[in-house]
Amino acid sequence: MKKQAFIYLFALLSLLSSSCVQSQQKKTASPKGYDLNTPIKYRMPENLLEISGITFNRSNPDTFYAIQDEEGKLFYGKLGADRVNHTKFGKHGDYEDVAVCGNLIVVLKSNGKLYTFPLNEIKEPELTHVQELNGLLPGGEYESMYADEDTRKLYVLCKNCDDEKTTKSSSGYIFDIATNGTLKAAGNFKIDVKQIKQLSGESKINFRPSAMAKNPVSKQWYIISSVNGLLVVADANWKVLDAYVIEHKTFLQPEGLAFDYKGNMYISNEGDEFSKGTVLKFNYLTGK
User: Domain limits at 92?
Assistant: First the structure.
């Protein structure tokens, strides 16, 4: 009996061990040029626990610019540093994304309000030349924005808008960015959610974009939906090319997305009571 029990226990442990190894070996599918399983992790300071947007100036990763979704402050510094600088541009509120275009910083609030202020004044503790732009976007909730510094166009993608059914499409809006900080409507675009459903294999999706950026190497659009746990890739004309499931254990709450000039991808994640906010860097792998 003891021998049989030992054999049974050994077989059970072997099965569990084999299952664990297979689980560890299971890898997340990744877009061309990246491996979503091997990030470089930067833990953010305590005041960026709820980091909600990240960007660079001219795609230079030496300095990052970020916001968090409770305070009207712009944070900037070096990834991996224990402390970062900040300047105050607005009152407490739900700020979701940030972009740089020339000498302008653009900040997106969840209710669709946009703020612009000069980049060369951010060393001041509190900014005075801030423009609050209202009424440019229809009613709804917004989290995703990207500024193309070459064309001086701003792209904003709705998370949940009053004038759309997010089971079918997600609406985007384009603006020309003037040097004086004003914005002028310059068109719109749509993301076909049906294409995302087909590519991801998920039949029930209310697509909720939380970050977006253009890949400087492929010129494709990368869009994150934190709620759905998806990374979506679209071509220059917004046709969805692929959708990748991203694991919660790696991407705690992905809210920001940026690329540097080499094509390396950075995804910021909000923290929680157990984990700090992070920025995950995914090196661009040529030939992959």
Answer: 34-282
Q: Mean per-residue pLDDT for 37-65?
A: 96
Residue 85's alpha-carbon distances to 98, 100, 133, in angstroms, are 16, 17, 25
In 3D space, the residue among 145, 117, 121, 112 whose CA is nearest the CA of residue 131 turns out to be 117
Q: CATH number for the domain including 41?
A: 2.120.10.30
Tell me the two tokens of residue 46.
């305590």
Beta bridge partner(s), residue 188: 173
Q: In which element (H, E) is residue 185 found? A: strand 183-192
Report pLDDT digits (tens) over 200-242. 887 777 789 999 999 999 999 999 999 889 999 999 999 999 9
Contact present, 277 and 49 (Cβ < 8 Å) = yes
Query: Residue 262 has which token pair?
Result: 């080499």
Helix (H), strand (E) at residue 251: none
pLDDT digits (tens, 9 = 90+) for 104-161: 999 999 999 999 999 999 999 999 999 999 999 999 999 999 999 999 999 999 998 8
Task: Please indicate, yes or no, if residue 12 is contained in any of the structural domains.
Answer: no
Coil vs helix vs strand at 171:
strand
Query: Is pLDDT of 101 > 80?
Result: yes
> 213 and 146 in contact (C-beta within 8 Å)?
yes
pLDDT at 287 (0 to 100)? 67
**10, part of any domain:** no
Structurally, the chain folds into a number of domains equal to 1
The answer to whether the beta carbons of residues 156 and 212 sit under 8 Å apart is no
Question: Does residue 245 belong to any structural domain of this protein?
Answer: yes
Does residue 236 fall inside a structural domain?
yes
